[in-house]
Write a structure and sequence with these properties.
Elements (H helix, E strand, L loop, with lengths): L8 H7 L29 H4 L2 H14 L2 E5 L2 H9 L7 E5 L4 H12 L4 E5 L4 H7 L5 E5 L11 H8 L5 E5 L4 H4 L2 H4 L3 E5 L13 E5 L2 H14 L5 H11 L2 H20 L6 E3 L9 H7 L6 E5 L3 H10 L4 E2 L9 E4 L13 E5 L5 H12 L2
Helix pairs in contact: 3-11, 4-10, 14-15
Bound molecules: pyridoxal-5'-phosphate.
The site of pyridoxal-5'-phosphate (PLP) has 14 residues, from helix 4.
Length: 368
């Protein structure tokens, strides 16, 4: 049995979650089964999981340092994590975060399921003060799409001995750049649709905890909500995660170069990338992240200029989502629920293409 404590993350990604007995395939097989013969621990896949899911769960659990549960999507994992909040509990969440989460939380508040409050990611004192009243602090850093940096370590540390649950959406950072459970978070969620899968060909999610009790509750949610992942999707996500380190480091180097050039470009009125020294969260990001990621957001002068740039892109795909090998771009304020964002804001997920090719495409697309 391989031990995540003794291996570098890059090695664990490649070697964990494989069958180990002589004669077995190197890769965890795609087990297409809803039901299993009686007489052993596994009876029905929705209840006890499947060997295919367990392979991905083992890899992600080792990276994050906890127990992982795979879901049908990032939102399914998020919904299961949020279900940990008792009825009437307060959930504090960032002013900028993935809009699906913001919508889910606002809807639950209207339904009377919980109460909600938003804080700026950077307001560390506010987050720490909220520990007294909140049932759950929901963190997302770097945030989607403004790339705000919250003090994940400081907030988790302050909440460590309290009854307040701290949940972190670690999708943008990936487990290679940030491991919130080590800092004291209770739950980490991922949209595995993004960097973990890495090829824009599947939907999958994961929730990881460091307590058996929280994992049991999250698994019960998966069973009762039926939020189980597709076997093919998990098989592809497992195949995808093997190359996470090389994909991420290449995309990250590209993102740094592109952000530096965008910042100096006369058509660009704002550039947000935590790796830039000018980013307000740069120092904190440098302390708490092992890499700055491959998401950039930058603003053109107005919505028309940003829409025109998206239409003109020839290599960079005009599409939503992120974390794939290909570069994608979209104007976020055009997304329902995101109208409050700067109208000319373009969110870009930088891929692993040659950086000069990406830059040539951006340059011709944003030329005035
Ligand atoms: C930060 C973040 N969290 C969660 C999600 C939701 O993931 P999924 O689409 O897999 O449900 C997304 C999707 O864009 C995201 O960007």
């Amino acid at each position: 049995m391989r031990d995540p404590e003794k291996l570098e993350a890059e090695t664990w990604l490649v070697s964990a979650g494989r069958p180990e007995a002589a004669g077995e395939p190197l890769n965890a097989p795609l087990v297409a089964a809803s039901t299993f013969r009686h007489g052993a621990d596994r009876g029905y896949a929705r209840n006890e999981g499947s060997p295919t899911w367990e392979s991905l769960e083992t890899i992600v659990a080792g990276l994050e340092g906890g127990e992982a549960t795979a879901f049908s999507s990032g939102m399914a994992a998020i919904a299961a994590a949020i279900e940990l909040v008792p009825v009437g509990g307060e959930i504090v969440y960032p002013a900028d975060c993935y809009q699906g989460v913001a919508t889910l939380l606002a809807r639950g508040a209207v339904q009377g399921r919980w109460t909600v409050r938003q804080l700026a990611a950077e307001d560390t004192a506010g987050w720490i003060a909220a520990i007294d009243s909140a049932a759950m602090l929901w963190l997302e850093s770097p945030s989607n799409p403004l790339l705000a940096i919250g003090d994940v370590a400081g907030i988790c540390e302050a909440a460590r001995d309290s009854d307040t649950l701290v949940a972190v959406d670690n999708t943008f950072a990936t487990p290679l750049n940030q491991r919130p459970l080590e800092r004291g978070a209770d739950v980490v969620v991922h949209s595995a649709t993004k960097y973990i899968g890495g090829h824009s060909d599947l939907l999958c999610g994961l929730a990881v905890t460091r307590s058996g009790d929280l994992t049991a509750q999250i698994r019960t949610s998966r069973i009762l909500q039926g939020a189980t992942p597709g076997t093919m999707e998990v098989f592809l996500a497992t195949r995808g995660i093997r190359t996470l380190a090389v994909r991420l480091r290449t995309a990250e180097a590209n993102a740094f170069e592109l952000a530096t050039r965008l910042q100096a470009h006369p058509a660009v009125v704002a550039t947000r990338y935590p790796g830039l020294a000018e980013h307000p969260g740069h120092e904190l990001a440098a302390q708490q992240l092992d890499g700055f990621g491959s998401m950039i957001s930058f603003d053109l002068v107005d919505a028309a200029a940003a829409d025109r740039a998206c239409e003109r892109m020839q290599l960079v795909e005009h599409a939503t989502s992120l974390g794939g090998v290909e570069s994608t771009i979209e104007r976020r304020a055009a997304t329902p629920g995101q109208e409050h964002l700067p109208p000319g804001l373009l969110r870009m997920s930088v891929g692993i293409e040659a950086v000069e090719d990406i830059w040539s495409d951006i340059e011709q697309a944003i030329a005035q």
